[in-house]
Design brief:
Helices cover 72% and strands 0% of the residues. The radius of gyration is 18 Å and the shape is globular. 26% of the residues are buried. The chain contains ten helices and no strands. The N terminus is likely disordered. Belongs to the sigma-70 factor family. ECF subfamily. One of its GO terms (molecular function) is DNA binding.
Length: 180
């Protein structure tokens, strides 16, 4: 069975991955652009400064480009690439001694939505690293519990318990802010 037969035949992304594996630089560039926002959000869940996030994404792109030939299943590109982004983000974090808490801003339509969005994102930034990462992957990247489990190499039960703890902590944080 050829490599191209192993992936879903109708998937444009899988075909782009195959081209990238075969050395097509523009195909890899297309993939990087396609997954940039996802990668940025995942890295943002670990790192705070935009410059650190950009460093991690650049390192992840280089590492992925150099090792994409080792990817055996084109359909697994997203989880494979996100894992590289996570690893590189932690590498950048290890090199940094102090990370200030930045506020996340995101334009939404009403002032109340802006305040709620900022409150939620700030609350997420206050979570422990392990809770923050699963929260971003689950709620912002729409990954399933099973996908997160495989991606982080932890049991599904651990993902569920981290999500539960994160929800409880977010509820506590946001409740305290409402009381103020």
């Amino acid at each position: 069975m050829e490599f191209t037969e192993q992936c879903q035949l109708g998937s444009a992304t899988s075909l782009t991955v195959i081209k990238a594996i075969q050395g097509n630089k523009s195909a890899f560039s297309i993939l990087f652009k396609e997954y940039y926002n996802t990668s940025y959000r995942v890295s943002r869940s670990i790192l705070k400064k935009d410059s650190d996030i950009e460093d991690a994404l650049q390192e992840a792109a280089i590492k992925a480009y150099k090792s994409i030939i080792k990817l055996k299943d084109a359909d697994l590109f997203k989880s494979w690439f996100i894992r590289i982004v996570i690893n590189e983000s932690y590498n950048v974090l290890k090199r940094k001694t102090h990370l200030p808490l930045d506020t996340l801003t995101n334009c939404t339509s009403t002032p109340n939505e802006i305040c709620n969005d900022i409150d939620i994102k700030n609350a997420i930034l206050n979570l422990d690293d392990d809770l923050r990462l699963v929260t971003v992957l689950y709620y912002y990247e729409d990954l399933s519990i099973k996908s997160i489990s495989k991606l982080l190499n932890i049991p599904e039960g651990t993902v569920k318990s981290r999500l539960s703890r994160a929800r409880n902590k977010l509820y506590d944080i946001l409740s305290i802010e409402e009381d103020i």
